[in-house]
Write a structure and sequence with these properties.
The complex is a heterodimer of chains A (about 400) and B (about 190). Chain A is about 70% helix and about 0% strand. By secondary structure, chain A is mainly alpha-helical. Chain A starts with a helix and ends with a helix. Chain B is built from 9 helices and no strands. Classes of the chains: A mainly alpha (about 400), B mainly alpha (about 190).
Chain lengths: ~400, ~190
């Protein structure tokens, strides 16, 4: 529909409403049925008709947003000094001149009417935003970067200390995205992502506000061409992600991708695989252990179990090297669960590993929730213990369930 | 929260092992709610399958099967093959309850193929037992039925799974009882559990 509205408005503006001239705008469109192409052609025509000036600049600015642009964000973009190649024609406009520009765009239906519930917000159809946004990014990359830098500085100051809703957190997400778009990777990570997402209440965003999907959308901006597994690089040494930063980003991506895309997420596996060389070079065996567990889990869900067992053995030998009881819990679990799926319920090694895991859990309960669940499951299948006994401990409403739930929330 | 999803998932399994569809439905609903709120793709798909099985076992096979099929598609879409033999066995149970026994047998065939391909044999004894139940229902040759039950018992013994062994033996005993009484007619109605 948007193309019809915009075409109609364009014919009114440029050709006094002469509908016979429509072919001059869209004569070559008959063969192209791709969605939005018609609208794009009409917008191209409008662009030519407007010429370079405040209207086009404003449309390009709106292309930076994926939602109605709020007044203060626009102010941040329009403040002096002007952004070269973009806002020169806008910064010196008087309020009445700006209203005239807005009126022209609204008459052309390139801007939507003012929303009485959100005064001061400017919005356009998503196709209009996309068209002019892409144009800004591809044809004026320096201006696009500067816009993102300004928006980063604006959004990072908006979120409250203790957000109560997902909406409260939106500026935080936008700040990280704009920071990355402005190539301020290091700053966006250390000054916004880590303190904001993992700072005071690390479980708040994913667990209470259920924002995992959005966190994934944010995280992808730290990756080259938004391809998981390859953290981005930049020429500016001060804004590059260090090896530690890359490790952190990859582990975050692995964790959130596993949760949101499933236990067999290929993207998560790629992230965990890329972590390995970093762990070796930085000597981070604990992180390597978590990454190996991530690979083991992926393999358990997708590969032949004999291949999974090889990874379980790697997990175990790493835990042995570290001689750490909490790592041993995870390692025994990997060693016990894999043969369980083979159907070797009372395999001597399986039993031994599960029992050792038990002993380790008895000594140290932290990080044991998954081991606890897996053990209960094994015992039930062995028929060794009455099901009801374990069911009571597994149910979220039961005493064991509360333990599991609260421990997980805290993790 | 992810651990809570895992706990609910296994609680659903236990409900299914105990043949308690009411419990499975309650747990599956909690799992679906949690997964929707928290964006957990795997648990959401798994919850749909469990809820579908419970619905079928409670008598609403049309709705239950449609939920199960949707859940299985979503599970496959995550790329995971783990638990697939078990989930397909649940599908077979649901189809059998809806008197679609030949389709149920196809689900068992698929489950066994997946189990062999991935070496995931923990539910194989139950797959053989279910095959025996389904073959008995459609009145297949007795030798095939007996072979399925015997194989189920053999696998369970080999795997040292007390619960699956007892289950297979009980169903086999029931089959022999009905056969001895001549109550089979064109097919035996053995209990699914």
């Amino acid at each position: 529909m948007v193309e019809l509205f915009v075409l109609g408005s364009y014919l009114t503006d440029a050709y006094n409403g002469d509908i016979r001239r429509r072919k001059e705008v869209s004569e070559h469109l008959a063969h192209d049925v791709r969605e939005g192409v018609h609208a794009r052609k009409v917008m191209e025509s409008y662009q030519t008709w407007f010429g370079e000036g405040p209207e086009l600049s404003l449309l390009r600015l709106l292309g930076l947003f994926d939602r109605p642009a709020d007044e203060r964000a626009l102010e941040a973009l329009l403040k002096a000094p002007a952004i070269p190649g973009l806002t020169e024609s806008l910064t010196d406009l008087s309020p009445s001149e700006l209203r005239t520009v807005l009126a022209r765009l609204r008459r052309a239906r390139l801007l939507t009417g003012e929303d009485p519930h959100s005064p001061g917000h400017l919005d356009a159809h998503p196709l209009v935003r996309e068209y002019f946004g892409e144009q800004l990014q591809s044809q004026r990359p320096e201006a696009w970067k500067e816009c993102n830098r300004r928006l980063y500085n604006y959004y990072r100051r908006v979120p409250p200390q203790l957000p109560e809703s997902f909406r409260d957190m939106e500026p935080l997400f936008l700040a990280v995205i704009c920071g990355c778009n402005a190539s301020l990777f290091h700053e966006a990570l250390h000054e916004v992502y880590i303190p904001g997402f993992n700072g005071v209440m690390p479980a708040l965003l994913p667990n209470v506000l259920g924002a995992r999907g959005t966190i994934v959308l944010v995280l992808v901006h730290f990756f080259k061409h938004e391809r998981w597994g390859s953290p981005t690089e930049t020429d500016d040494a001060t804004q590059s992600l260090t090896a530690e930063d890359q490790l952190f980003i990859l582990m975050q991506a692995g964790m959130y991708l596993t949760a949101t895309r499933g236990l067999a997420s290929t993207e998560a596996r790629i992230c965990y695989q890329r972590v390995e060389p970093l762990c070796h070079s930085l000597n981070r065996p604990l992180v390597l252990f978590v990454a190996l567990i991530g690979q083991w889990r992926y393999s358990l869900h997708t590969d032949k179990l004999s291949a999974t067992m090889q990874i379980a053995k790697r997990v175990f030998s790493l835990a042995q090297e570290q001689n750490d009881s909490s790592l041993m819990i995870g390692a025994y679990r990997a060693l016990a669960v894999t043969p369980y799926f083979f159907g070797r319920f009372r395999d001597r090694a399986t039993l031994r590993d599960a029992r050792r895991s038990d002993l380790a859990v008895g000594r140290r309960t932290v990080s044991s929730r998954r081991g606890h669940v897996a053990r209960c499951y094994l015992y039930v299948l062995w028929g060794a213990i009455p099901m009801a006994f374990w069911r009571d401990r597994l149910q979220p409403s039961g005493p064991g369930g509360r333990y599991l739930a609260s421990e997980t929330c805290m993790a | 929260m992810y651990g809570l999803g895992l706990a609910l998932w296994f609680t659903g399994f236990l409900g299914h092992f105990e043949r308690n569809p009411g419990e499975v439905e309650r747990v599956a609903s909690d799992l679906i709610e949690l997964s929707t709120r928290q964006n957990f793709a795997s648990w959401l798909a798994g919850g749909e399958v469990l809820r579908g099985w419970a619905r079928c076992a409670l008598g609403d096979t049309a709705k239950g099967i449609s939920w199960m099929l949707g859940g299985l598609d979503d599970w496959r879409a995550t790329g995971s093959m783990l638990w697939m033999p078990y989930l397909l066995a649940q599908k077979a149970e649901a189809l059998h309850l809806a008197d679609r026994t030949s389709e149920a047998l196809e689900a068992i065939n698929e489950a066994e193929a997946v189990a062999e391909r991935r070496e995931e044999r923990w539910w194989s004894a139950e797959l053989r037992r279910l095959r025996g139940v389904l073959l008995a229902a459609i009145g297949t040759d007795g030798a095939q039925i007996e072979a399925s039950f015997c194989e189920a018992i053999r696998i369970a013994k080999e795997q040292k799974s007390v619960s699956l062994e007892k289950r297979a033996e009980a169903t086999y005993a029931e089959y022999r009882r009905q056969k001895a009484n001549g109550s089979g007619g064109r097919g035996f109605r053995l209990p699914l559990w």
